[in-house]
Amino acid sequence: MLVWLKFPMLWLLPTRIATGFCCSLLTSASMGKNCPPGNVKSKITTKTSIRLSGDTDAASSSVNNSSDSNDRSTSTSSATIFLEIEVADEKIGRLQFIIPDTKMLPLHTENILQLCSKEKSSIDPRMKYTGCEFQHAPQFVEGFAQYRWGHTLHGRGRNTVGRADERIKDPTSMTACTHSVYGGQYYGLHYENDIPKQDLDGKDATVVLTVPLVGPGRGSTDLCIVRVGESPPEWKERLLLNSAVLGWMDPSSMETLQTMARQTRGPPKVVDSGVL
Known about the structure:
This protein is an alpha+beta fold and about 280 residues long.
């Protein structure tokens, strides 16, 4: 009796032991079976690992979704551009071009698209084709002996991709779409395999859109309309040497192109342009 009086906390010891044992039983019951207290920690750890596994699945799903998103962002996309043409203050019609793969030569293509859409002209009014003229001389007029079966539009030399005053270079993309032809190479779409042929009175009248990759206009704002299909047999694909084929002309634009090519009144002028 003196011991209990001297150490009063001993009265509470049996109660705490009993309480702890009951709590252990309750915890075991809540886990689905009566297990000794020593196994409670093991069970909780298992549930935690399940939860982490679920989180990992979710993270994996997130990564897969991100990967799918990246795949979509790098997938092939197409675009259509147009140029409204005027000669001697008289509108003669619209030239429209289909670019089936804007990612084949992404830098050169994006430059052309932004110059057509005029989206950066608020930064620099020279970053657009509106107001620019096609070259006009005997070699650009159908019917003259010097005719080259092509028409070159000079921009203002201000690129919308990279630094405005630096030439665009994309050797990696060029290497992936190089085509050999007698006399050298050209790039982009393959004329025979990738370009749908246009028929005019039973003859090939295919017209392609190109940008120069060699010479003074390379990697800048020049673009060329090349009448490969109608050119003499010894020319054909050779007209594409040292240039990149980005797309082809819509057949509905043939009348406008012929009017532009056969007139001698003055240089064809772009009065409007855009991306459809």
